[in-house]
Design goal:
The chain contains seven helices and eleven strands. It folds into two domains: about 70 residues, 60s Ribosomal Protein L30, Chain: A (2-Layer Sandwich), CATH 3.30.1330.30; about 140 residues, Alpha/beta knot (3-Layer(aba) Sandwich). It is an alpha/beta fold. Helix 4 packs parallel to helix 7. The longest helix is centred in the middle third of the chain and has 13 residues. About 30% of the residues lie in helices and about 20% in strands.
């Protein structure tokens, strides 16, 4: 009799909670999928038929059980869970990156992955200590973007710089030297963001060109996913001019 446990960082597998996420998993990381679990409340129809067809074509086992849903999902409308083996990420050194220094919120990381994919910046460097990218909360917040994101962990920002080579560096800070509208990233560049609570340490003022996103005095700062999305939009908008 199968037993199911809550996700732990040490586990070799993670989960896509929901059918939309599982479709993304099956589409982009098929070779890493172990099983797909289906809840008894999942309605028959085209969506289920599509899911079963994709699993059959990839020789992926489908398991009908409600037990794993009771353990892993607090969402009432979650009727499909994909179980997948964790995969190794690798940044492309020839593209621009978004760099998260010590991110601590799973939802924020997933949301930034989604925005990064939308703006064509789906190469993410994550500086430890940091939240686990395979936490199902990250997977869900990314809306499946994690399966199309090249992400890699580094023990320090210096390690990242050494491995990823020469590039324009733009740390985003409240006490920055320039405003976002005064910089024009080109070629290979990295947009760098700090922890949700503390931001980047002051030493990042000496890294590349520090940048602030201007806003009214009615707030102290923008939250991390919004700031990162604005920065990515401004840095890549020339790529989307028709």
């Amino acid at each position: 009799m199968a037993t199911y446990k809550r996700y732990r960082k040490e586990d070799t597998v993670s989960y896509s909670l929901g059918i939309t996420l599982t479709f993304e998993l099956l589409k982009f990381k098929t070779e890493y999928v172990n099983k797909v679990y289906i809840h008894s409340a999942m309605k028959e129809g085209e969506t289920l038929d599509k899911l079963l067809s994709m699993c059959k074509a990839a020789n992926i086992e489908t398991v009908y059980t409600d037990k794993i849903f009771n353990v892993l999902s607090q969402k009432e409308n979650c009727y499909v869970i994909g179980e997948f083996r964790k995969f190794n990420g690798k940044l492309s050194k020839d593209t621009s990156h978004i760099v998260l220094v010590n991110p601590s919120n799973a939802g924020n990381m997933g949301t930034i992955m989604r925005s990064a994919l939308g703006f064509g910046m789906n190469n993410m460097a994550i500086i430890r200590p940091a939240v686990d990218a395979f936490d199902p909360k990250v997977v869900r917040a990314s809306m499946g973007a994690i399966f199309s994101t090249n992400f890699e962990y580094f023990d320090s920002f210096e390690e990242y710089k050494k491995i990823c080579g020469e590039r324009e560096l733009y740390p985003f800070m409240l006490n920055a030297k320039k405003s976002l509208h005064d910089v024009s990233p080109a070629g290979k560049f990295s947009l760098i963001f700090g922890n949700e609570a503390t931001g980047l340490p002051d030493e990042f003022l000496n890294v590349g060109t520090s940048v602030i996103i201007p806003h009214s005095s009615n707030i102290d700062s923008l939250n991390l996913p919004i700031a990162a999305s604005i920065a990515m939009y401004e840095s890549t908008k020339k790529n989307f001019i028709k």
